[in-house]
Amino acid sequence: MPALLVGGLAAVLAALLLLTLVVLPAPARVPLSRLDPAVAPPSSVLAGAGAAAGAVVQRALERRGRLASGKAALARAGVRMSLPDFVLVTALATLGACVLGVLLGGPWPALLLAVLVPLGAKVLLSFRAGRRQARFADQLGDALQLMSSSLRAGHSLLRAVDSVAQEAAAPMSEEFTRLVVETRVGRDLDDALAELSARMGSDDFTWIAQAIAIHREVGGNLAEVLDAVGHTIRERNAIRRQVKALSAEGKLSAVVLMALPFGIAGFIGLTNPGYLAGFTETTVGYGMLAVALLLLLAGGLWLKKMVSIRF
Length: 311
Known about the structure:
The model has no long low-confidence stretch (mean pLDDT 80). By secondary structure, the protein is an all-alpha fold.
């Protein structure tokens, strides 16, 4: 029996090997023409339709004057997708959400989803941009220290910038890599630094750009200047973290106070629906709901101003 079992397994393996080598077709070879960079690869119907739709979206954004601002918003958020592709993806997601809303609940849910999907995409970009700018501000002191160390070691300013692009973490490395690439293709360093500070919305980096511009005009010890600016930026970051920690309790209280009316209304609606029916059956009830929403909106704006500290 063991010999028959071993022989059967060997026969099965041999049959599978024969099937793989003889019966199944050989893998298609890549033609040599695809290795020629001068020959454009063949495009599929789907790729051609996507390129045509992207061109239409780009022309529409150019006519409305939103192409530059849209690209700047994607750059601040660190999104590598092109602006027409992002608009197309958002439009397709909105269309899919509308179809889903019609299938689930009718036209009103579809209309609500059609409004929420583009709004959610905009909020997502703003959130990613804010988080990226905060990380950039936190990494700025270490980047200045690395630049000053490179300058003291005898490297040039561009080599010090390149060292930050290679050694720092994202998003500092991404922005400085872009800075290095722009200067290598012939752009002036002062203009590239000014655009970087405007793109990241950093007042601290504006000081750095001005210090570098002044040094290139009048000379001096740039390493000492960067050390002084870096010390000031680190102190500002320490104060910013302290203010953020002290205002965290106020922000949490604001969130709880804003969510409390909706939580109580949802709980009462689940446990005793008839108790809230008076608000939706009479004109006075609708008026009371409208006044409550206006007061809630005013209180939310007031709380937002109280916990938003700028310095």
